[in-house]
Specification:
With about 800 residues, the chain is of the alpha+beta class. It contains 26 helices and 29 strands. Among the domains are: about 140 residues, Alpha-Beta Plaits (2-Layer Sandwich), CATH 3.30.70; about 90 residues, Calcium-transporting ATPase, cytoplasmic transduction domain A (Distorted Sandwich); about 130 residues, Rossmann fold; about 120 residues, 3-Layer(aba) Sandwich (Calcium-transporting ATPase, cytoplasmic domain N), CATH 3.40.1110.10. Strands 17-29-28-27-18-25-26 form a seven-stranded mixed beta sheet, with helices on both faces. The C terminus is likely disordered.
C-alpha cells in the first residue's frame, strides 16, 4: 500500500545535497517519488517501500535521518496473531515509521520521527488488549527473558490437581480401576480451570474486546466446552455412571502451561549472547582527577580522561594506551579466543578483560558511541528484526484464529447433525481448538534468528538485520577489497625515489601531505619519516580526493599532491621512464606545481603483507562454489601480485569508488548475487550497492554503517563463516516453519475426524511450541570454521 513519510535529515548544505539524496533514494524498490526540502531539511518519500532501506541509504549517502528507535516490553502476547495486531495498531500512528514485535523476547520496537511516550504506548497496547511492562529501553538494551511471574506457580497447582484425574487413565492400561466419582473429578478440575486457567480467560477477554482472536481464545473456549459438558453430565440423574471429561480440560490447561514454562526457559537461552555482552558493561572506572586517581561511576567518565586499569579488571571505555603493556581477553567482543597483546598507542575496547599488566588509557569513546554499545545495539536490533519469510507467517496468523473457530464449529455441527452424537462433536471440536493454537508459528522465525545471530555475535560476526540472513543464502560472488581486507593494511614504505635525486626533500614533502590523512599509507610515510629523522613540510589547506589521493598548499604557495598513478595521468603529469619500483609494490606519486602545470617530484613504494587467513578464506569460498574477485584502488602490478599468491583470477585494479560500484552493478546485471567485503570509506558505496555488504570493524564507521554484516576481527576467513551461520539460520527458520505448519495441517483434520482426543491435542500443541524453540537452540552448537550443525 502506497504511503508518504516525511523524514527530518541532517547534513544538507546546498542544492547538490538535494540532488544527491534524490538520486540515492529514487532507485530503491517501491519508491515512487522523492521530494527534498532544503529549507526545512526534510525528505518526503512516497511509495510502497521498506523504511529500513530508506534510512540505511540516507546514512550511507551522508545525510542520516534523525529518527527515534525505542523498545518496549509487552505483557499478554501469546502467539503470532498477537504480534500482528500490535504492529497494526502502532503502524497507524502518524509519527511511527515502523512497528515491529518480537514474540520471542516479547518486545515492541518503534521507529518514529518524534519518539512515542510510554503513556501513549501504554494506551495503544491497552486498546489492543495488552499491557506495557516496565520502562522503555534504548535499542542497545535488551530485556531479560525470564519465566513470567506466576507461570511456574500456576503450573505446580495445575499439575497437583490434574495428576489424580489422569492417573486412572494410565492405570486402566494395566486393567486397574481407580476412576474417581464425577463429583470428585469436578472438585479437582475446578481450581485448574478457573485458577490455573485464569490467565487464558483474561487474555481471551482482552483479545475479544479488541475484536480479534488469539491463542487464549482457543484454549479458553476449548477447555470451557469440555469442562461445561462434564459439569452437565455430572448433574444429570445417574451421574455416577456419566461420561465426564474433566481430565481432558485439566490436562490441556496443564500441558499448555508446561509448554509455556519450557518455552520461556528455552527463549531465555536464545538471549544468552546478548546478556553476556550486557554483563561486560563495567559500572565504575579509576580516573585521574584533581591530581589523584579517583573511582567514579562509568557515566561520569569523559572523552580524553585518563583511566587506570589494573590486571584482572575490565577496560571501562574505548581508548588508546598511553602507558603500559598487557594481554587483553576480547573473546566476547571479537570472538578471538586467544589473548591479544597490547602496548603503547594500541586501541583498547571497553568490556575487554585486562589480564596481566597495568595500563593507563586515554578515553576516546563513551556511552552509546562505544564499540560495546554498538555491538549490543546491532545484536539487539538484528534479533528484533523479521525475516522476509515472516511476512507470509503474519498473513496466516491474521486469519488463523477465525478460520480455526469456523472449523471447530463445522466439526461440532457435522458430528452432531450427521451422527446425533453431540458429545463426541463437542470433544472433537475442543481437540480442533486446542491443537490449532498458533504459538509455534509465532516463535518459529524469531527463535531461530535470535539463536543464530547470538551464535554469530559470539564468533565476532554482527548481523545487522534478518534480511541479510536470507540474502547470504544466494551469494554467487564475493568481491574483496585488498588493503586492510586481504592484506594486513599496515604497509611499509620500502623505497622512495626523487626525480632530482633529493630523496630527503621528497620524504619531507610526502610526510607533510600525509599528516592530514588517516590512510594506512599515510601512517607508513610518517613512521618512515620519524625513523629517518625527517621533519615534515608544513602544508596548508589539505584536501582529500576520494580514490585519488591528497593535496595541499606549500609555504611557497604551490599546490603539492600525493596520490595514485591514475590521478597523475588525469592531470597529465609526465612520469620519467627511468623511475623503477620493486615488483608487486604499491606506488604513490608526489607532484607539485601551480595552476594546471605540475611536475613530478618522485615516487614512493610500499609493501603490504597478505593476511595468513586470506588463503583459507579464498579456499573455503571456492569449496562452497562461491566465486571470488578482488576490487582495489591500488596499482595493477601490486594487485596482480597479491591475487596471484592467493589464487584469485578476477582482479580489477586502479578503481575509484564509482568504479567499484560499476563492477558490482555489472555482476548484478548478469544475474549474480554479489557480496562486497571492505573496510574503507572508498568501499562504502560498493558495500551499499552490493546485495550483501560485509565490513571489517577494523575499518571506518562509514564502511560499517553501509554494510549488513560487520566482522569484529579483521579476518577474511570470517566471511565464509558469516555466510555459513546465515545459511544455517535460514535453514532452521524453514525447519521450524515446516514443523509449525505440519502440526496444524495434519492435526486439525485428525482432530476434526475424531482421531485425536483433547488430551493428546493439548500435548501435541505444547510439544510443537517447545520443539521449534529447542530446534533453534541447536544453532548455539555452531562454531567458526568448525563445520555445520543441524
Amino acid at each position: 500500500m502506497s504511503s508518504t513519510v516525511h523524514l527530518p535529515v541532517s547534513g544538507m548544505s546546498c542544492a547538490s545535497c538535494v540532488a544527491r539524496i534524490e538520486r540515492a533514494l529514487q532507485p530503491l524498490d517501491g519508491v515512487k517519488e522523492v521530494a527534498v526540502n532544503l529549507a526545512t531539511e526534510q525528505v518526503s518519500v512516497q511509495g510502497d517501500f521498506d523504511i529500513e532501506s530508506v534510512l540505511q541509504t540516507l546514512r550511507t549517502t551522508g545525510y542520516p535521518a534523525t529518527v527515534q528507535h525505542q523498545q518496549f516490553a509487552v505483557e499478554g502476547m501469546h502467539c503470532g496473531s498477537c504480534a500482528g495486531r500490535i504492529e497494526k495498531a502502532f503502524s497507524a500512528l502518524p509519527d511511527v515509521l515502523k512497528a515491529s514485535v518480537n514474540l520471542a523476547t516479547e518486545q515492541l520496537t518503534l521507529i518514529s520521527t518524534q519518539g512515542i511516550s510510554a503513556e501513549v504506548v501504554g494506551q495503544q497496547l491497552s486498546a489492543a488488549g495488552y499491557a506495557l511492562a516496565g520502562t522503555p529501553q534504548a535499542p542497545e538494551q535488551s530485556s531479560d527473558t525470564t519465566i513470567k511471574p506466576g507461570v511456574d506457580g500456576l503450573l505446580v497447582l495445575a499439575a497437583v490437581f490434574t495428576v489424580p484425574l489422569v492417573a486412572p487413565m494410565v492405570l486402566a492400561i494395566f486393567q486397574m480401576d481407580a476412576m474417581l466419582p464425577p463429583l470428585w473429578q469436578w472438585i479437582l478440575a475446578t481450581p485448574v480451570q478457573f485458577i490455573a486457567g485464569s490467565r487464558f480467560y483474561r487474555g481471551a477477554w482482552s483479545s475479544l474486546k479488541a475484536g480479534v482472536g488469539n491463542m487464549d481464545v482457543l484454549v479458553a473456549l476449548g477447555t470451557t466446552a469440555a469442562y461445561g459438558l462434564s459439569v452437565y453430565h455430572t448433574l444429570l440423574p445417574g451421574a455416577a455412571d456419566a461420561a465426564v471429561y474433566f481430565e481432558s480440560s485439566s490436562a490441556v490447561i496443564t500441558l499448555v502451561l508446561l509448554g509455556k514454562f519450557l518455552e520461556h526457559r528455552a527463549k531465555r537461552r536464545t538471549t544468552e549472547a546478548l546478556r553476556a555482552l550486557e554483563k561486560l558493561r563495567p559500572e565504575q572506572a579509576r580516573v585521574w582527577r584533581d591530581g589523584a586517581w579517583q573511582q567514579v561511576a562509568i557515566n561520569d567518565v569523559q572523552v580524553d580522561d585518563k583511566v587506570s586499569i589494573k590486571p584482572g579488571e575490565q577496560v571501562p571505555c574505548d581508548g588508546v594506551i598511553l602507558e603500559g603493556r598487557s594481554h587483553l581477553d576480547e573473546a566476547l567482543l571479537t570472538g578471538e579466543s586467544a589473548p591479544v597483546s597490547k602496548q603503547k598507542d594500541d586501541p583498547v575496547t571497553g568490556g575487554a578483560y585486562n589480564l596481566d599488566g597495568a595500563l593507563t588509557v586515554r578515553v576516546t569513546r563513551i556511552g552509546a558511541e562505544s564499540t560495546l554499545s554498538a555491538i549490543i545495539r546491532l545484536v539487539s536490533e538484528a534479533q528484533g528484526e523479521k525475516a522476509p519469510v515472516q511476512a507470509l507467517v503474519d498473513k496466516v496468523s491474521a486469519v488463523f484464529v477465525p478460520v480455526v473457530l469456523a472449523i471447530a464449529l463445522l466439526t461440532l455441527l457435522g458430528w452432531g447433525l450427521m451422527t446425533g452424537d453431540w458429545t463426541t462433536g463437542i470433544l472433537n471440536a475442543v481437540a480442533v481448538l486446542v491443537i490449532a493454537c498458533p504459538c509455534a508459528l509465532g516463535l518459529a522465525t524469531p527463535a531461530a534468528i535470535m539463536a543464530g545471530t547470538g551464535s554469530a555475535a559470539r564468533a565476532g560476526i554482527l548481523v545487522k538485520d534478518a534480511k541479510a540472513l536470507e540474502q547470504a543464502l544466494h551469494i554467487d560472488w564475493v568481491l574483496f577489497d585488498k588493503t586492510g581486507t586481504l592484506t594486513e593494511g599496515k604497509p611499509r614504505l620500502v623505497d622512495w625515489t626523487a626525480v632530482d635525486g633529493k630523496s630527503e626533500a621528497l620524504l619531507a614533502l610526502a610526510a607533510g601531505l600525509q599528516q592530514h590523512s588517516e590512510h594506512p599509507l599515510a601512517t607508513a610515510v610518517l613512521d618512515c619519516a620519524e625513523e629517518k629523522g625527517v621533519t615534515p613540510v608544513d602544508i596548508n589547506e589539505p584536501k582529500t580526493q576520494a580514490g585519488r589521493g591528497i593535496q595541499g598548499k606549500t609555504a611557497e604557495g604551490q599546490t603539492a599532491l600525493l596520490g595514485s598513478e591514475r590521478w597523475i595521468q588525469e592531470l597529465h603529469i609526465g612520469i620519467p621512464d627511468n623511475l623503477s619500483v620493486p615488483a608487486g609494490a604499491t606506488v604513490s606519486y608526489v607532484a607539485r606545481g601551480e595552476g594546471d602545470d605540475y611536475q613530478l617530484v618522485g615516487i614512493l613504494a610500499f609493501v603490504d603483507t597478505i593476511k595468513d587467513s586470506a588463503h583459507r578464506a579464498i579456499e573455503t569460498l571456492a569449496k562452497a562454489n562461491i566465486k571470488v574477485a578482488m576490487l582495489t584502488g591500488d596499482n595493477r602490478d601490486s594487485a596482480k601480485a597479491v591475487a596471484r599468491e592467493l589464487g584469485v583470477d578476477d582482479v580489477r585494479a586502479e578503481l575509484l569508488p564509482e568504479d567499484k560500484i560499476a563492477a558490482v552493478k555489472e555482476m548484478q546485471q548478469q544475474g549474480f548475487e554479489v557480496a562486497m567485503v571492505g573496510d574503507g570509506i572508498n568501499d562504502a558505496p560498493a558495500l551499499a550497492q552490493a546485495d550483501l555488504g560485509i565490513a571489517m570493524a577494523s575499518g571506518t564507521d562509514v564502511a560499517m554503517s553501509a554494510s549488513a554484516i560487520t566482522l569484529m576481527r579483521a579476518d577474511p576467513a570470517l566471511v565464509a563463516d558469516a555466510l555459513t551461520i546465515a545459511r544455517l539460520t535460514v535453514r532452521k527458520i524453514r525447519q521450524n516453519l515446516f514443523w509449525a505448519f505440519i502440526f496444524n495441517t495434519l492435526g486439525i483434520p485428525l482432530a476434526a475426524l475424531g482421531y485425536l482426543s483433547p488430551l493428546i491435542a493439548g500435548g501435541a500443541m505444547a510439544f510443537s511450541s517447545v520443539l521449534v524453540v529447542f530446534n533453534a537452540l541447536l544453532l548455539q552448537r555452531w562454531r567458526v570454521s568448525g563445520g555445520e550443525h543441524d
